[in-house]
Amino acid sequence: MSTDLIGYLYAATVAAGGIMGYVKAGSIPSLAAGLAFGGILGYGAHLASQDPPRPLLQLGTSLVLAGMMGARWSKSGKMMPAGMICIISCAALIRGLYTYNRHLLPTRQ
């Protein structure tokens, strides 16, 4: 299995969003959440890069982020940052499910 570059990019995007939230608004919770979720997603990308891939950490984290940011997006109606992270998290969730189904589920014979 090759390196999960998309997973690492997703992790970096989430971490950078937390840093930007801190720089723009001085939000320490945004910084903490962005760095925590970015770190978890980075480790998840490492696990998904193994042979066989183990995408479950990325799946769970993407599900949590999609739910949290989807609720914030629904409440605020603002595309940035909640809507963007929700959409990216949903895409990562779909990608993780594809990887899980392709590599980890037993095949029928």
TrEMBL record:
Provide the alphabetized UniProt keywords.
Membrane, Transmembrane, Transmembrane helix
What GO CC terms are in its UniProt record? Answer: mitochondrial membrane
In Swiss-Prot or TrEMBL terms, this protein is called Transmembrane protein 14 like
Q: Kindly list the residue ranges recorded as spanning the membrane.
A: 6-23, 30-49, 80-98
Specify one Pfam family. Answer: Tmemb_14
InterPro entries in UniProt: TMEM14 (IPR005349), TMEM14_sf (IPR044890)
Q: Which GO terms describe its biological process?
A: regulation of heme biosynthetic process
Q: Which domain of life is it from?
A: Eukaryota
Q: Give the protein family.
A: Belongs to the TMEM14 family.
> Where, per UniProt, does this protein localize?
Membrane
